[in-house]
């Protein structure tokens, strides 16, 4: 059985080591935040250290492209 979900665009952020600040990196489509983060890190060939600091968040309002 296959899952047929809908993709949405997530906002991708990189956090600082103390998690006090976030740097907006861009958008990535996915069926979940985990999926979007995985796609982002694979597309940008992120190291394991970089991957730990990346977060995917569902935007609070639509953005213009």
How would you characterize the overall build of this protein?
With 65 residues, the protein is an alpha+beta fold. It has one domain. Helix content is 26%, strand content 32%. The protein has 2 helices and 3 strands. A 3-stranded antiparallel beta sheet has the order 2-1-3. A hairpin with a 6-residue loop joins strand 1 and strand 2.
Please describe the topology of this protein.
Layout: E1 8-15, E2 22-30, H1 33-43, H2 48-53, E3 54-57
Antiparallel strand pairs: 1-2, 1-3
Enumerate the spans where pLDDT stays under 50 for 5 or more consecutive residues: none
How many angstroms separate the termini?
A: 34 Å
Number of helices: 2
Radius of gyration: 12 Å
Main sheet makeup: 3 strands, antiparallel
The proportion of residues in beta strands is 25-35%
Q: Structural class of the helix and strand makeup? A: alpha+beta
- Fraction of residues in helix: 25-40%
- In one word, what is the shape? globular
Order of neighbouring strands in the sheet with most strands: 2-1-3
User: How many separate structural domains?
Assistant: 1
């Amino acid at each position: 059985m296959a899952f047929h979900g809908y993709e949405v665009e997530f906002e991708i952020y990189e956090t600082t080591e103390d998690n006090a600040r976030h740097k907006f990196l861009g958008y990535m489509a996915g069926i979940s935040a985990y999926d979007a983060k995985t796609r982002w890190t694979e597309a940008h060939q992120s190291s394991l250290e970089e991957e730990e600091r990346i977060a995917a968040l569902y935007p609070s309002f639509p953005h213009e492209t």
